[in-house]
Amino acid sequence: MSHKHAIILLILIVIGVIAGVLAGWIWGPAMLGVAWMGDMFLTALKMLIVPLIIAAVISGVASLGDVRKLGRIGGATLAYYFITTGIAVFIGLVMVNLIQPGAGLNISGGEIPQKVLEKEETSASDILMSLISPNLIASAADTQLLPLIVFAIVFSAALTTIGKRGEHVIEFFNGVNDAMMKLVVWLMYFAPIGIFALVAGRLGKAGGGEQFMAELTAVGWHVVTVLSALAVHFVVLLLILFFVAGRGMDYLVGMLRALFTAFGTASSSATLPLTMECVRENKVDDRSVRFVLPLGSTVNMDGTALYEAAAVMFIAQAYGIDLTMGQQVIIFVTATLAAIGAAGIPEAGLVTMIIVLNAVGLPLEGIGLLLAVDWFLDRFRTSVNVWGDSVGAAVIDRLLRSKYSGMSP
User: Fold this and answer.
1) Measured between alpha carbons, how far is residue 90 from residues 127, 221, 232, 356 in Å?
2) Domains defined for the chain, CATH in brackets
3) What is the pLDDT of residue 89?
4) What span, in angstroms and rounded, lies between the C-alpha atoms of 203 and 212?
5) Cα separations (Å) of 139 from 180, 237, 238, 349, 369?
6) Which DSSP letter does residue 408 get?
7) Are the C-beta atoms of 296 and 81 separated by less than 8 Å?
8) What is the b/e burial string over 358-368, where b = at least 16 CB atoms within 10 angstroms of the residue's CB?
9) 106 Cβ partners below 8 Å, 6+ apart?
10) In this structure, how many other beta carbons lie within 10 angstroms of the beta carbon of residue 164?
11) Which one, 100, 284, 345, 395, has least CB within 10 Å?
């Protein structure tokens, strides 16, 4: 996409978000009539995810050449993910201890969502089990991306070891990747309408502006805490972009289309095609784009990890339960790990939050306190997730251009 078209599209997407908020706020449930357009746009994005991820990861890993270099790049990528996710959780815990959003609420609890009840027995070991799938076709159908990525990494590594026959297969996936990115560009021209419908429809489902404000007021300090913590972490990632990746504000400007799309869709996985397009337009090495971003859309959930830590502390405060420093350390560890298992779909953080709640013995009914505003906060934390992935691509890109500059293209 040309720079001129990218700027025009960004302006239209921003207009779509603002118009969606205003329409949903004013006309409320009437906007449910346009929600199907947003669902269609989101479905179209999801349609691209599986073939794009498989092709991008296989071509990206294969482009490294020597399989041993995959270990170095993979290690650096995972180190970045764990460090930034840990920073996010720490910021969330600090903010919730400073603001004390749940203190004095005296709320007895709420109804446990059905999707949480279905996952009540989820444990940390289930995250490791999710790395492998006995049926890749079923995983693709359910958009379970982690086992697909693991398979694509191992498969592409094997292709680099079998000579000419592997090169033909790699070239095929290179072509698939290029074709998928072209589809992304075409689909993005429909983004302003799709995002407008998604935002307006979701506000309409919430009952419009007045009803949403009533729900927001009930847990207002929780919302303030989460948004403040997300803002702080966004700035931390910006500093990493400046001082570690060596990039400037133009990188952030180039990512705005992806960030606004993440806000509209509330899905880092659905936003992945556009994230890859924006990062590529920011002149990041294709090897970093194809490897770091697909992996990050699944395991790098800074915003989700921060939210889960803050939400669990809010629930404890609302129930009048004082958590010790040791218990908060447990929250730090489990929130970081649980975020890795959070699928890149709307409100997935609610499901993985049960791991954190179980770890410190808090009632699952506490999740019911968050339902009214979770969809709203989900949009902000998804945008932070996407921003974290984008900064990670720039960080690994600098490694590729310096320490690993001798790699074959």
Assistant:
1) 21, 19, 11, 15
2) 3-401 (1.10.3860.10)
3) 92
4) 8
5) 20, 32, 34, 20, 32
6) -
7) yes
8) bbbebebbbbb
9) 318, 320
10) 6
11) 100
Tokens 């400073």, located at residue? 98
Task: Express each pLDDT in 323-378 by its tens digit.
Answer: 888 888 888 888 877 776 555 444 556 666 777 787 778 777 777 777 778 888 88
* Number of residues in the chain: 409
Q: What span, in angstroms and rounded, lies between the C-alpha atoms of 243 and 239?
A: 6
- Written as six digits, the tokens of 51 are 């073939």
**Residue given tokens 């509209």 in the structure block:** 264
**CB 38 within 8 Å of CB 194:** yes
Residue with tokens 């498969």: 155
Nearest to 278 by CA among 264, 266, 262: 262
pLDDT tens figures, 261-275: 999 888 888 888 899
Per-residue b or e along 188-201, where b marks 16 or more CB atoms closer than 10 Å to that residue's CB: beebbbbbbbbbbb
Name the nearest CA neighbour of 238 among 118, 372, 87, 112.
Answer: 87
Within its chain, how far is the Cα of 388 from the centroid?
A: 8
| Residue type at 294 in one-letter notation | P
For residues 367 and 216, the answer to whether their CB atoms sit within 8 Å is: no
CB 65 within 8 Å of CB 234: no
CA distance 401 to 124: 36
**Amino acid type, 180:** M
Could you give the 3-state DSSP secondary structure of residue 125? helix
Instruction: Name the residue with tokens 């805490």.
Output: 225
DSSP percent split of the chain into helix, strand, coil, nearest 5: 80, 0, 20
d(CA 89, CA 233): 9
Helices (H), 113-208: 114-117, 124-129, 136-141, 145-159, 164-188, 191-205
Cα 395 to chain centroid distance, Å, stands at 18
- Helical axes 220-243 vs 371-401, angle rounded to 10°: 10
* Separation CA 51–CA 28 (nearest Å): 37
For 271-287, write each residue's pLDDT tens digit.
888 999 999 999 998 88
